[in-house]
Fold this protein.
Amino acid sequence: MIEFSHVSKRYPTGHDALRDVNFSLGRGELAFLTGHSGAGKSTLLRLIMLMERPSSGTIQVAGQTLTQLKSAEIPFHRRRIGVVFQNHQLLFDRSVFDNIALPLHISGYHLDDIGKRVRAALDKVGLLSKEKLNPVTLSTGEQQRIGIARAIVNRPQLILADEPTGNLDPELSAEIMRLFMEFNHHGTTVLIASHDLALINQMDCRVLTLNQGRMTQHG
Amino acid sequence: MANERDIQRPRGAVRQEAKATAAAATAPRGAARHQVTLKAKSQSWWRHNLLTAKEALSRLLQTPLPTLMTLAVLAIALTLPGIMYLALKNINALSQQWQGGPRVSLYLQASLPDDEAQRFSQELLLRQDLQAVELISKAQGLYDFKKASGLGDIFDYIQGNPLPAVVVLQPVDQTAEAMTRLQEEFSALPEVAEVVLDIEWVKRLAAFVEVANRIVVVLGGLLALAVLLVVGNTIRLIIENRRDEILVAKLVGATDAWIRRPFLYTGFWFGVLGGLMAVLLIGFSLVLITEPVNQLIGLYQSGFVLQGLSPDEVVILLASGLLLGLMGARLAVGQHLQEIEPR
Ligand SMILES: Nc1ncnc2c1ncn2[C@@H]1O[C@H](COP(=O)(O)OP(=O)(O)O)[C@@H](O)[C@H]1O
Ligand SMILES: [Mg+2]
């Protein structure tokens, strides 16, 4: 599903965020991406989303070589991926329902279809009763789940999450992780960046470790 | 009915994919999605455009005061050239009514008796190079003068009629040269005291109208630029306000066209509504000046009617507003959307 070969990323500042990274993640797999802060976890996820381009090396996602994609094809690439990024959270000018419906509107779904899919996604994260509320009225944990519902509403082949449990207490964190495991059991490939080692060790899953931009463990 | 079923069929196919089992969920999905027919796609495109247009309008109406102020600026910027254009149009119409074309006036000798003047003008009627010949006898001239000047009483104290008879000619060839030739020819006749060519003020009016035309074009251009900038700047602010939404939309796979569209529709509405307001403002201004203009015209005993915008001109004004709104939006969007990229 994801294949990195000899991927390096140097930011314009001259900082090498990733150095010669090689790994592959098969279809239907779930893996954690871990490492200290600044190790390059977010950079790796951004490369997969084509929010950044690698300085060298090739990345393949779902059989497609990303370096060959033209900018006009990037949106269609992103539609196949569900993302939970901490800094791109919910929009507070609209209801929970409309937040989750956004990817569907963008992909051109029919209105009736949108309603069904949004409710199915809300049901999966256990927040069906909150669809009409403004997300600002929800707790942090609930907001994170709404973000996850938005990521899965398009039924993506791949889910990427960047520190999805960043500011949640251990109990809520475990609950969020169980959600990802469940999507994975239904066949979705999942890659979760997290530095919460205690939680990762509980999960007994494949772990990819980055250390100053180098991948020191591929699980 | 048949139409509806066509659209629903591909949707059904997509929906089934949702029920697919875990094992099948990954592989055939791409194929299922591509079964959406072209027709359904274009239907969805239209639906999305209609929805976006409606939403852009309702967003504008959600902030009525700022919207109204922007619209007022746009309307005034469109009204000014509109009113100047109307003024020119009316001046043109007025000058045409007063003056069918350039004329030559022959002032006859004051000593020439009325019957001789009559015979003289009848001879001129036979000439092929004259379109029209009109004799204004001494008595007619006096009557006209009294009526137009309001100085009738003065003549009661003057013995006899001091005014000469005048023959007004309209030549077939109205070029300045031909008229000058006629002037020379008639000056030589013993019955004629003086020949006055009526082309000077026609030339002057034409020159004035030309200058005024240019001014309208230049000012119109400047004000069009103002409309562009106002729309562009307003939309820049709207884009800035919706930054988060744009970032999220790009992240979940929105195309550039999809992101541009609501802002283009905002520009469209600014243009159309600003244009409509300009049409209303022009109409209102006309109502305000019709009364005094009619009084003024009444003094000159002319059947002139003040002209407003024709339906064609209303359409042109609305179309210019629409176009300027869209262009302003396009400029703002082209400049600012590229800068907003998820990081
Ligand atoms: N846009 C950027 N420009 C320059 N340097 C960056 C940029 N983004 C991240 N970095 C640097 O790259 C390194 C890796 O960052 P990041 O991928 O965010 O690490 P992590 O997510 O593991 O904490 C850090 O040292 C960070 O300062
Ligand atoms: Mg990070």
The first strand of chain B starts at residue 104 and ends at 108.
